[in-house]
Every structure is written in structure tokens, then in C-alpha cells.
Amino acid sequence: AQTVTQSQPEMSVQEAETVTLSCTYDTSESDYYLFWYKQPPSRQMILVIRQEAYKQQNATENRFSVNFQKAAKSFSLKISDSQLGDAAMYFCAYRNSGGGADGLTFGKGTHLIIQP
Amino acid sequence: GAVVSQHPSWVICKSGTSVKIECRSLDFQATTMFWYRQFPKQSLMLMATSNEGSKATYEQGVEKDKFLINHASLTLSTLTVTSAHPEDSSFYICSARDPGQGVSRSKLFFGSGTQLSVL
Q1: Chain A nearest-CA residue for B111
Q2: Do A45 and B110 touch (CB under 8 A)?
Q3: Average pLDDT of B33-61?
């Protein structure tokens, strides 16, 4: 079974600064997907960024980027120019690649606080 | 973008009663939907995979007789919590995959969740 570990229960960053959220995972598969989801107080799950394991290039979405280290099974999220609206729970998630029938395995989450 | 509608957003019920939660894909057909459970300040845990026209696949430790899943159409999956007890109180979230995105794109869309409180 796959596992996802987020070792930072809470992180705090000054507005406009950069913060990195850590995530490691364990799998015996060679092809899979990794995701970062944001869950604000509304509890709506919002996809931040996704990475296909077969792609070496790190995914980026505007101020959000990942550092994907496949050999180390590490998938960290970097948020640049932090904004107050970035405050939320962030979950790292894993999914097998086969067929789309597999659900997501989530980490325990990191609560991101943005200091004004 | 694709939208998944989940209803109701919150429900309060008495212990021993059953509660049904609906998850609808509004602008795509979802052959597969997923049900998650989230306790306060905790992560989402996959409960079951709902397959259109066939039985749901439950994760280890999830009681299939307690959490009945029906996926009778390509746009609707329902989760029924039977004989609910206070320990079933939780936040339940569904998600659906838009097959039109292609397997390689594999984008999942989440409902807005249902807070169940059992008195």
C-alpha cells in the first residue's frame, strides 16, 4: 500500500515571502501521479498542482512550483510571494496511474499560516 | 470547468436513523466516483470507490453494510449511512473523474462536502 507523509503539521510565513511544504511518499510503482491540494476553511478541495511521475520536469503553476525527486520519493511544494489567500490546509496526495480507478491517498496535511 | 455537486451540505440526524448523501457530476459522465471521510483537523481517508452499474469497492476497515453506495447512473452516486451513531459524525466528501480528460490527464473534481452530525 502507498503512504504519504507530511512532516510539518503547521508552517508560518510572512506575506510576500516564500515557503516550502514537504512531502514524502512510499510506493513500489514506477508510474503514478502526485498532487497538492488546498483546503480553505470552506473545506472545498482545490487542486493546486499535479505531477506525472514519468515527467522529469517539475510542474509549475504561477506562484506554485514543486521539487519532484523521484529517487528520493520526495515532492515538496514551493509557494512564492505568499498571499493572505494562500492560508489553508495543504494536502499532498498520491494516485496510481492505472486506469483512473484508484482513489487518492492523502498525507495528514500542513496548516499554512500567512502573517500579514 | 467540470463541477461536482454534493447534497446536502450539512445534516443533523438522530441516532439510529439513516442518511443519504448525493454526489452528482453536472457536466460530465463519471463512471467512477470516490467517497472520502474527514474527521476534524485530520486528513481525507478513502472509504470506497463507486463504479457505475456495479458494486462499490470498499477500503479495508470500512463497513459495507453501514455505508451503502449506489451508482445507478453515470452522473449520480449516493452514500447512505445506515443506522447512524454519533461516531459516524464526520465530513464526507465525494470526487469524480472526468473521463473526457483522458486517463493521462486524470483530473479529479471534488464535491463541496457534507457535514454529518449524529445526535
Answers
A1: A44
A2: yes
A3: 92
